[in-house]
Amino acid sequence: MDTNRPLRVGMVGYSFMGAAHSHAWRTAPKFFDLPLQPELAVLAGRNEPAVKRAAQKMGWAETETDWRTLIGRDDVDLIDICTPGNTHAEIAMAALKAGKHVLCEKPLANSVEEAEQMATVAEEAARSGIFAMCGFSYRRTPALALARRLVQQGKLGTIRHIRAQYLQDWLSDENAPLTWRLDKEKSGSGSLGDLGAHIVDAAQFVTGQKITGLSAVLETFVKERPAGGDLVGLGGQGDSAPDAARGPVTVDDAALFTARFDGGSVGVFEATRFALGRKNAMRLEVNGSDGSVCFDFEDMNVLQFFDGTENTESAGFRRIIVTEPEHPYVGNWWPAGHGLGYEHSFTHQVVDLVRAIAAAQQPEPSFSDALQVQRVLNAAELSSSAGSNWQPVETQPSSIRSVVG
Ligand code: SOE
For ligand 1, atom 5, which residue shows the shortest CA distance? Predict the structure, then answer.
């Protein structure tokens, strides 16, 4: 690809994730030197007045009301998928087959079968220089990227424990209304896929180890909710309708599991939307033979580090404020101490994606990486429905698997 060219983006969906991605596409070239210049070319959504309003607000030049028309356009290079999970597979595979790069929101799909097909199509496309990436944005939070760097530098020694939580509370009110996130047909699963997928990716990203098996408990605390919630956004916040007719919640409210990793460590995972008072507590603690790291997204500019090789008399968790220019991604932003926010990880995602595409290299996480996360989610559902039976998880990439299988 000619690196002086623009990268013309077509995005499908314009709700919460659409807004975060639009901000990232707009902002990335203003703070980072990019080899291709992203253009917010076309925004697609089914409701014409709404998509036009969103396009104007978020800076998109044109709109389409059918994603198929968007994919058929010659003046679009990349398709960014910000829609509910039940549409990911069809849009992503059509886009890749039409020669468009793809960025797809997490979790990759609503089933392992769909994710396998997507990974296969993505591997084929990559052979002709067309790339696909899944949007596990939290790995681009500087403190988590620093945690990975410390692990790679050997500062933690042999990793033994991985403790991951993703705690939100927006469903604690049993009158919080139904949204698409509570409908298994659309979302695939509940806390498990929405939140659990993030901590599985983050844990594996930071430690470099893959989950090989798990035992899970999934629970739906509130089985019916008032219908008529915000069908595209988060919902559940201040717009309760207790008198409205109630409909079924078909996904898990909370997902917990213990896991083993291929590097010999053991892990505990918890994802819930019922942790009252916890708004976006995406937490990760890793304990090794020589050190530990601890992260909480509610204090996202900080990484706690314990150096077990120090004199025990003065040792203790050190609070690293991850805003120094030498910290991952931070040098392109503000002076030390002037923290970053939720939206920055999406901007970093765009930066890494654009650089990989320009260098004709596979961006990470690939669809094959996201397929492996999908296998973990699937194993958790199988385990929970079989009385928490141990479920093995395949770790090998999709292409190897199809040759073997
Ligand atoms: C909703 O629970 C949600 O928006 C997730 O879907 C996002 O991936 C996460 O970043 C914040 O919470």
Answer: 194
Cα separation, 73 vs 132, in Å, equals: 18
Residue from 104, 195, 251, 279 to probe ligand 1 pocket by mutation (most atoms less than 8 Å from CB) = 195
For range 164-183, the mean pLDDT: 97
Give the number of the atom of ligand 1 that is nearest the alpha carbon of residue 137: 10
What predicted TM-score, i.e. pTM, was given to this entire model? 0.95
* Cis, bond preceding 397 (omega within 30 deg of 0): no
Q: How far is the CA of 81 from the centre of ligand 1 (A)?
A: 15
Select 142-299+301-340's CATH number: 3.30.950.10, 3.30.360.10, 3.40.50.2000, 1.10.720.60. Answer: 3.30.360.10
* 262-291: average pLDDT: 98
pLDDT tens digits, residue range 93-112? 999 999 999 999 999 999 99
